[in-house]
Structures are given as C-alpha cells and as structure tokens.
Design brief:
Shape: globular
Strand content: 5-15%
Order of helices and strands: HEEEHHEHEHEHHHEHHHEHH
Number of helices: 13
Distance between the termini: 73 Å
CATH architecture: 3-Layer(aba) Sandwich
C-alpha cells in the first residue's frame, strides 16, 4: 500500500513537472511584466490601452509594389528583434536603436533592418544591439521609450533614427518619471500566470504564431479609416489604388498624405525641450546619444510623385517639388542642436540623393525603403558610432 502511494505521488510530481515545462515552452513570458510595445504605440500617450504584441507575427504588404508579404517576428516585448536580457553582456557595449517604421523595417525582411545592417558591419561583435523601432510613432513615444528603457537596459549608446515626419511642430510630452521595472515571479506556476493574463483580458503569449496578423486593415475592418465612408475615397484615389486599399493590401492612411508631408516639412522644427531632455538623460545615465536623419523620398527625388498623385487625385497639382531648401530645413535644425549639445549627428540626405541617381531606394507606392537601403544606413551608423568610440 505504501509503495503504491509512493509511486502514485511520484507519478503526480513527474506529471506536474512535465506540465510546467511544457507550459513554459509553449507560453514564454519575458523578465519584465510592465515593459511592452503596447505602451508606446500611437494612442498610448492619450491613455488608450492596447493588447500585448508578445511572441506574435505581423505582416505588412503593398500589393501595388509586390505580391510578397513582409513578416515581422516580434519578441517577448513585442519588438522586431531577437530576445533580450535585462542584464548586459559584460564583454559588449549595448546600443538601443529608437525610431519609427523606418527603424522597424517596414517593407523589408527581418534580416534587412537598420539594426541588422549595424550588426553585419560589427564583425568583431563589439556591440549588443536592440531594435526598439515601432511603426506609426513619433517623438513623444521616443521620449517615453528613453525614460523607460534607458534605466532598465542601461545602454552605452542610444541611437535615435529620426524620419522626416518626426520634426514638424508638435506638442511635446516630457516624461516626468522613469519606469520602475516589475519582474515576473519565476516561481509562480505558469498555469496561474496564464489564468491571471486571461482574467486581465491580455492575450495568451503562445510561442508559435503560424497564421500571423495584418498590420493593414481591409474595408470590412472597423479600424479601416474610411469604414462605412468608402464613397469619400473615390474622388481622391485612382480605382487601382482604392481597390487595393479596400482589400487591405495598400496603406489606407496614405490618402492625401503627400499634402500632410509638404505642410510638415515646411514647418519650423522646435526641438529645445527635446534636446534638453536628451542632455539630462545623457548626464544622468552616462550614455551617448547619436542622432540620425532619414529623409522622405520626395525630399531627395521627384520620381515618386507620379505614384503619390494616385493617392491625391483631386487635391494635388500635376507637379510638386519637395527637394528644395524650404522642405529640407529640418536637417540643418537638427545639426545645430546636435552641435550645441555635442551629440554625434548623421544626416543621410546627401548620400541617399546621390545613390538615388543610380537606383531607386524606396518603393513606388509604399513610402518605405527597400531592404538594402536599411542595411546601408545601419552599416553607415556603425562606421560613425564605432569611429566616435575609438
């Protein structure tokens, strides 16, 4: 009787251990419970709550450019990168890349992002890079990311990859406090953790996401910006573009976007409070900030306007030139601020303008760059940053 009881208990213990191991394999959780991409996506600064992006695959497509879907494999914190550890590698310098969709690598493969270009150039593996790029965000999200990620991950370098639409005159929200990290208790059985997440209506962080989710909504999705108002699209878009948008294969937010871009580029960049914040964090945490600027395609070439006219059929003139100095003033404003605060600065405008003469660096219908262009930028940033370190 005693032997049977003993064997029964042993069997139950083994079963529970195997169950725990299986659940931890299938439902991984990160070290931190309060750091996630969802805290920084567009709308989060207004207090809106979003589901976690952990361990999920998302895809972006531009059907008018290519039939290929570009899959974003997101890590346990919801970022398009390998898995991260809070503790630094003692033998490497840690660099955080912060930016928007151009840093995340929209319209490129997982291996073709800016941070991957940096890694490819770093043949001696001097750096441990972290890609914190998030599509659709701006300077306020960058500030919040710095305030949260810098105290936790303790980087040696923070590289801000700024895109042209980041610097129009916007109201800045300066973070008032740093994030206090909260860690998951590794001793809590994973079943209890999953039940807690279910109770809080958080998605279950399954390790394998075979189906993937679309970044772009279709006409049947209530997140589609023209849901139940598609008749308003007709006068602005060509039939080809509107059909692709409604199928969820072209960015629906591009309607008349060229006009918003023109207005934003013509505005003065007011960055005093932004740079004061960077200077404060640079001193407080003994880190180096490096700033870079990626121009919009219309700033370096008039070639792409023929495609944007199809998104702006009624309100755009037959010709628009954004390559003039009026629409390229933000680069110089950034340079002046960086000189004042002694931050290294890399402006890619001239280099991309020259390379554009040889090949088109951006897609035709989508505003983003091709994979080789992102890689080139990453390699150039490595050359500049490693040179500064030496």
């Amino acid at each position: 009787m005693f032997v049977k009881l003993k064997n029964g208990l042993l069997f139950m213990v083994i079963l529970l251990v195997l169950q725990e191991l299986g659940l931890r394999l299938l439902f991984p959780i990160p070290e931190l419970s309060n750091f996630d991409r969802s805290n920084y996506v567009a709308g989060a600064e207004k207090g809106n709550k979003y589901s976690f992006y952990r361990n999920s695959n998302w895809y972006w497509e531009s059907g008018l450019d290519t039939a290929h879907k570009f899959v974003h494999e997101l890590n346990q914190y919801g970022f398009r990168d390998r898995e991260w550890s809070v503790e630094k590698d003692a033998n490497k310098k840690r660099i955080l890349f912060i930016g928007d969709s151009f840093l995340e690598g929209i319209m490129a493969e997982q291996s073709e992002t800016v941070s991957e270009g940096f890694n490819q150039a770093d043949v001696n593996e001097e750096y441990e890079s972290m890609n914190l790029g998030i599509m659709g965000v701006g300077i306020n999200s960058y500030l919040r990311l710095i305030a949260d990620a810098v105290p936790i991950f303790k980087p040696d370098v923070v590289c801000l990859v700024l895109y042209s639409n980041d610097l129009s005159n916007k109201y800045l929200v300066i973070p008032k406090e740093d994030l206090i990290p909260e860690y998951y208790n590794l001793w809590v059985p994973r079943m209890i953790e999953l039940m807690t997440q279910y109770k809080n209506k958080s998605p279950i962080p399954f390790r394998f996401d075979w189906r993937g989710k679309a970044f772009l909504p279709s006409i049947t999705d209530k997140n589609f910006p023209w849901y139940n108002r598609e008749h308003l699209m007709v006068k602005h878009l060509t039939t080809e573009v509107s059909n692709s948008m409604m199928e969820g294969k072209t960015n629906p937010f591009k309607l008349n976007q060229i006009l918003r871009e023109r207005n934003g580029l013509a505005q003065q960049a007011s960055l005093g409070a932004f740079f004061s914040f960077l200077d404060e964090y640079s001193r407080k945490y003994q880190i180096k900030f490096v700033l870079s600027y990626i121009p919009a395609r219309h700033q370096i070439s008039n070639y792409y306007y023929q495609f944007d006219r199809k998104f702006c059929k009624s309100d755009c003139s037959n010709f628009m030139d954004l390559t003039t100095s009026r629409y390229n003033q933000h680069q110089e404003a950034l340079r002046n601020y960086c000189d004042k605060y002694q931050f290294p600065y890399v402006d890619f405008t001239s280099e991309l303008k020259e390379k554009e003469k040889e090949e088109h660096l951006y897609w035709n219908y989508d505003d983003h760059m091709k994979g080789n262009s992102y890689l080139m930028i990453g390699k150039q940033l490595y050359a500049r940053i490693s040179g500064e370190a030496n």
